[in-house]
Every structure is written in C-alpha cells, then in structure tokens.
Write a structure and sequence with these properties.
3 domains, four-stranded antiparallel β-sheet, alpha+beta, three-stranded antiparallel β-sheet
Length: about 425
C-alpha cells in the first residue's frame, strides 16, 4: 500500500499483491464469516458489506479467482448446513433459531455477485474508495494529560495494590481510581503512548463518520503514535504486546461526582466502571496480499470518555512526531514525554515560567534505567529529538545545565507563541 499525500489516506499498489494459497483464501473467508457473525447486530449493514467487499477484492486477481471463491463459499456453506442439521437433530424440539449458526455466507455471496464482471482497474478503484470509508488517518496525536492517566502510568505507584483518590476540577471533586492486573503483564510506559494512538484513531473516526468504534491495523496504530507510516515488525510486535497488556488490565474508575459537577446527564454505569482499559476484538485479514492483524474497538474506553470530559488533552501534529530516531519503546516514550512538557510550557494558561526539564524526573517518569553509559545514550537520543525540533522551528533552542560536573537539567528556549506545526519540516 502507498500513502497518498493529497488525501492523507492509503491506497493499494499492484506491487503489494502476492499470490495467495488456497488455504490462505479459505482462512480469510472464515475470518470474514466470524466478523459478520460477531457484528451483524451492532454494526450498520453498509459497513459490514463494505468490509467484506474490501477484503474479498484483495483475494481477486482474475475472473477465475472469483469463480474459485464462489465454489469455496458453496463448499463451506454446505459444511455449515450439515452442522445445522446435526444441531437441530440433537436438540430436537428444544432447538431455537438462536442455536443455529447465522448464515453469513449469504452476505459473502451477495458481495461476490456484485463484483462479477468488474475489471481489475474497477476493483482497484473500489478497494481504494472502500478503504477511505473504513479508516481515516489521524492528523495528530491526542495525548491524555489528566491526573488519572498520569497516576496510572507513574512507575512509582502500584495501583494494583491500592485504591487512590485524586482531585479534579477547581472544586476538587474526588475521583476513585485503581487497577487490577488479570495477567502477569503489568502496564509499561510505552502503553501510555499506544493508548494515545488508539484515542487518536477513535477521535479521527468520530470526526470522519461519527463512528466511535473503528477498525484499525497494527501499522495504522504504530503510525498514529510515532508518525512512522512504515513500521518494522519489531515495532508492530511492541504495539501488539502493549494492546494485550491494556486489554488484560482492569481499571476501576469512579468519576460520578466530577461528572455531576460538569453537568453531564447522570448515568452511574457511564461514570463508574470496572472494565479493561481497552476492549478490542482482534482479527486477521489479508490486505495487499499479506496477512495483517486488525482490531475493532468494541466499546468506547472509559478513559477516553473521561479525558474528553476533563478536556485535558495535549494535541501534537504529525510533523513533531517524525523525528529521525530509532523508534524504540524508550525513545518513543522520551519523545512524547518532552512533547507533553513543552506543549504545557507553551500553554499560557499553565503559567509555567520555568522552562526546564529534569533528566532525573524524565527518566524516572519514563521508566528509563541503566548504567551510566546506557543513560548517556538516552541523553543523546533526547538531544537528537530536541535538535530536530530546533531545526523545524518549533523551539528556539535548548541548553543542558550542570550541577558540578554532572548534567542535570535541560533549559528550553521557546518562541513568544507556539508555532503552527501542521506543516513543519526540518530546515
């Protein structure tokens, strides 16, 4: 796939396509069937048909491929009908329609019939148009910066062993927060950035077509929080592991008192939750001839709702993320930490007259540990990021300050007002 800079969307490239085996195609059909079964009652039929159409197009190179898929559907449907008959026979008079698998193959056949007679170019055009409907790339990274989020990702606080109270708002409304780890995977600093990426995708989808439960791939997620449109397998693996941690960590959050103060319609279940930080459905599908992992937001995250209500969000445009560094988890965390700090310095309402960042505080918050030599390398990464922002014209300059012989602090020199960042480039 390639990125169209004019539309800010992905488009298919012929070079991306690779021949698929029969087993791969059959596996893809089964994934689609599962997708239809799971979302037929909660997703608009137009979007279900669109998703099926987009993926089926990726399986078709010639008219023969279309015929082959049609025969495959007939075969799989016949097997399902045998299962239905077996279920009804075993349950007898106690059987109900709920016990019989939904025939998703009817939908898939309708899509295939609609594709008959279309040229390869028509199919390619259809796929590009469908992709525009299915996914909108975020133009910026939305980073939650409220007290609950800061508390959750504080390396020095174990929320799984204690309940904490935080105050929010001018009248100090109490918010109850704790977490519960359901696996041996405690959340890590990189998870905050991945969560910001998911929030950015949700916000872009809501703005695009009002849908708060979008589908996204690992590539799209990594791009959302790093600015890199071509992530490596290692970076995808980092995102995958992070999502697993966020899906297996329960957040106990009660912000009813604050919601009342904000004048929001009272609904206890809306403001009090005991759910995973992220609730996602995971899928694998073929795009451009390759198997990719995709996720659908099953329910709007409570932290997303809370963050929108508190309006404590820091927005960073893509150019600020596109710094020429090796996007390791530690480098991403450091970059985004400094972005949050500098954005807060630029915000006049914060009245931050001291524009300094402590290395010790930054490394401690970001979970950066190591030998003196390793920490020197991390400081080099910090310098490289800051130098890029200087060359872009985002900050005037920076200076490292020593205490004795040891570098302790970074002083940031800002412009009078924050520069427009949507089109910044390194000069």
């Amino acid at each position: 796939m390639k990125l169209n800079k004019e539309t800010n969307l992905y488009e298919l490239e012929e070079a991306d396509k690779k021949p698929l085996t029969q087993d791969e195609k059959e596996k893809q059909i089964k994934y689609l069937k599962g997708f239809i079964d799971e979302f037929k009652n909660v997703m608009e039929s137009e979007k279900i048909f669109g998703m099926c159409r987009f993926i089926l197009i990726s399986l078709i190179d010639t008219p023969e491929d279309l015929k082959e898929l049609s025969l495959m559907l007939d075969s799989l449907e016949a097997l399902e009908n045998l299962e239905k008959e077996k279920t009804l026979e075993e349950m007898g008079n106690a059987a109900t329609l709920a016990d019989v698998p939904h025939n998703a193959y009817i939908i898939l056949k309708e899509v295939l019939e609609d594709l008959e007679g279309k040229s390869p170019q028509d199919l390619k055009t259809d796929a590009s148009e469908l992709l525009k409907q299915l996914y909108k790339r975020p133009s910026s990274l939305l980073m939650p910066n409220n007290k609950v989020t800061n508390l959750m990702f504080d390396e020095n606080i174990d929320l799984s062993s204690q309940i904490r109270l935080v105050n929010e708002g001018s009248d100090k409304q109490k918010i109850v927060v704790s977490t519960q780890i359901l696996s041996e995977l405690p959340i890590e600093p990189i998870d905050r950035e991945v969560l910001s990426g998911v929030f950015s995708i949700i916000a872009a989808s809501e703005q695009f077509d009002g849908n708060p439960n979008p589908l996204f791939t690992e590539n799209q997620l990594v791009e959302a929080y790093t600015g890199n449109p071509k992530p490596t397998e290692i970076q995808r693996e980092v995102a995958r592991e992070s999502l697993n941690r966020l899906r297996t960590t329960i957040i106990n959050l009660d912000w009813t008192e604050y919601a009342i103060k904000l004048g929001l319609p009272l609904n206890d279940s809306y403001f009090r939750t005991n759910d995973p930080i992220l609730m996602l459905h995971e899928y694998q599908f073929i795009s451009g001839g390759q198997m990719v992992s995709g996720y659908k937001v099953a329910a709007t995250p409570i932290l997303y709702t809370y963050t929108k209500a508190t309006k404590r969000i820091i927005q960073a445009d893509k150019p600020l993320l596109k710094v020429d560094i090796n996007n390791t988890p530690e480098a991403i965390v450091l970059k985004n930490y400094m972005l949050r700090r500098i954005k807060m310095m630029y915000n006049k309402h914060n009245h931050m007259n001291i524009h300094k960042i402590s290395y010790e505080e930054m490394f401690n918050t970001c979970g950066i540990k190591g030998t003196p030599t390793q920490l020197t390398r991390k400081r080099n990464t910090v310098r490289k990021i800051l130098e890029a922002w200087v060359k872009m014209g985002y900050i005037k300059d920076y200076k490292e300050l020593k205490e004795g012989k040891e570098i302790k602090t970074i002083q940031i020199f800002l412009y009078t007002s924050e520069p427009e960042t949507k089109n910044l480039k390194i000069k």
